[in-house]
Design brief:
Layout (H helix, E strand, L loop, with lengths): L4 H20 L5 E7 L2 E7 L4 H6 L3 H17 L1 H12 L3 E9 L4 E8 L3 H9 L1
Antiparallel strand pairs: 1-2, 2-4, 3-4
Pfam families: MpsC
Organism: Paenibacillus sambharensis
Protein name: DUF2294 domain-containing protein
Length: about 120
Amino acid sequence: MMKTKGMMEAEVSRALTQWERDFLGRGSVDVKTDIVRNMIVVMLKGVLTPAEKLLAAEKDGMLSVKRNRSELVETGAGQLYQLIGDLTGKQVVSFFTDISTRSGERVMVFMLDGNLENELMTKKA
């Protein structure tokens, strides 16, 4: 059976939540994935621990939380590239991420080596 765009987005959301649990020790509260052209855009909500939220209330703490979380995710970037590649059949060309210490949300953007959205929409037709 051919995967639809929605099925692929749901698979990526589930896989990233599992990766977070396995690699970071806890998963997001909510994950939403969108495939747009050659990008996979993932919004993860509820990524901060209670201690990180408290620490982020001060500017120095906020910068520390952002830096630490960024370093943790970058350490696992190879695993993320592999995960996205296995799910999509595309190679990750570049990866961007940031976290909001105010809202506790993380955004991940995976740039792929081809237009995945177009391929998924073409297969459906």
